[in-house]
Amino acid sequence: MNTAQQTVAIFGAYGHTARFLIDEFHERGLGLSLGGRDPVRMTALAEAHPYARTHVATVDEPGSLDALVAGAALVVNAAGPFGDTTGPLIEAALRAGIHYIDITGEQPVTRHDFETYREPLAASGLLFLPALGFFGGLPDLLATAAMGDWAAADDITVAFALDSWHPTPGTRKAGARSAGKRVTVSGGRLVPFDYGQDLPTDWDFPAPVGKQPVHALGTADQITISRHLKSPEVRAFMNEAPLADLRDPHTPAPTGASDGGRSAQSWLIDVVVTRGAERRAVSAVGRDIYAVTAPVVAEAAVRILAGRTLPGGTGSGMRAPGEVFDAEDFLSSIADITWSRR
Asked: Which residues does the UniProt record annotate as the domain Saccharopine dehydrogenase NADP binding (predicted)?
């Protein structure tokens, strides 16, 4: 399949992360159908991207979503709060018979969508990939690469180190909506969790970050990982500096430093899996947790449209990316990510 002949629809197309998605898909030669709720902002978007179709679309009007996705081969939902948008966009994708990706980092939404749609969508012949971003898809792929040929592990730990975090307004809204609804994976079950319940511990990150105090998190990747990798414990941690930024209501939103609006923020993800006395670990580094979502989503879309997915019945329904793609090959194809085993 020639993906240059395909069109991708993006809902929430004037959001912070969506601007990176638009540039990434355009650079890869795919057609674009862009949609959002605000007519004024959509007019501005049409002027900025004359090569794209644009639509005023809202989740309250299914017909407007149908117009957005008409003629597209895949739709990307980039509009939060995702608790309001994933259901209508999934239904629009089903009506159109096209694939679906979203970029939510909201753990309760990811859990709800897997529990609600995984079985009903299994025979759809379409792929639905939720939470395909910095939180969710990227750690899921790293964990899959770390597991390798192990059929099961005793523990999977994802540790995030950010030098800072300037959250978007959408991130703040998502955090408020997720309060009191987060879980972690312990004893093979999803158990309630929320911030402030843990005491800080130390995590020895690869250089140049080194050992830092970290706090437990409830993340979307704990949901995706637990859906296809066998481990009774799936934990997530983050260092203190970005959490302090996130808690501070005066921390400003991200601003571009260079490279098409990417911020100067640096990040590192360290994933460790254990089995008895054995240990495997991979890590990845990059810039800007919002911008890096774009190449991950675009690479997934291109592979789906080209049929470059794993064999064995993982090509349909609501899936985690580690179920669908060759994790090592996928990670190595993203120029904005440097990953390695350690």
From this structure: 8-105
Q: Give the separation between CA 99 and CA 125, rounded to whole angstroms.
A: 9
| CATH match of 3-132+292-333 with 3.30.230.10 | no
* DSSP codes, 143-185: HHHHHTT-S--SEEEEEEEES-----HHHHHHHHHHTT--EEE
8 Å CB contact between 94 and 126: yes
Strands of the sheet containing 7-11, edge to edge, are: 53-56, 31-36, 7-11, 74-77, 99-102, 127-129, 317-318
137-287: CATH class? alpha beta
The domain limits of the chain are: 3-132+292-333, 137-287
CA atoms within 13 A on the CB side of 152: 7
Three-state DSSP state, 81: coil
Tens digits of per-residue pLDDT, 72-120? 999 999 999 999 999 999 999 999 999 999 999 999 999 999 999 999 9
Tell me the whole-structure pTM to 2 decimals.
0.96
Interhelix angle 82-96/107-117, nearest 10 degrees? 30
User: How many beta carbons lie within 10 A of that of residue 238, not counting itself?
Assistant: 22
pLDDT at 3: 56
Question: Minimal CA–CA distance to 269: which of 170, 133, 153, 149?
Answer: 133
